[in-house]
Amino acid sequence: xxxxxxxxKGALLFFGGLFSLLVDNFGMPLAILVVIQxxxxxxxxxxxxxxxxxxxxxxxxxxxxxxVGLLILIGLVYLIEVNIFGTNTIGGSIATVxxxxxxxxxxxxxxxxxxxxxxxxxxxxxxxxxKENDK
Length: 135
Description:
By secondary structure, the chain is mainly α. 79% of the residues lie in helices and 0% in strands.
């Protein structure tokens, strides 16, 4: 299947929007995203230490800036959506897509640490990162 990453993100977007409509729990996907981002930073640091890499503040700050920028963007979407449309579906959908991407990153970090990850999941992560293995 070509562009599996787009199908995955589209499915996350759809189900995130559906979840936001059904549950109507304002901001919950954003709160979940924050917790998963914190876990991603911690597992990333653990993986780097396991691989013998030195922690570099420039790399850490760049990653932190990306995560904060993403949270600001989603927060702005929520702000605009709630005040103009009176809904929270789009913000929840966007947050859900990034929750999925962060979970993949966490899984990749755990693999680097040495936690067993099924080969099919590793292959899926490679496809999502654009590194398909030609077998």
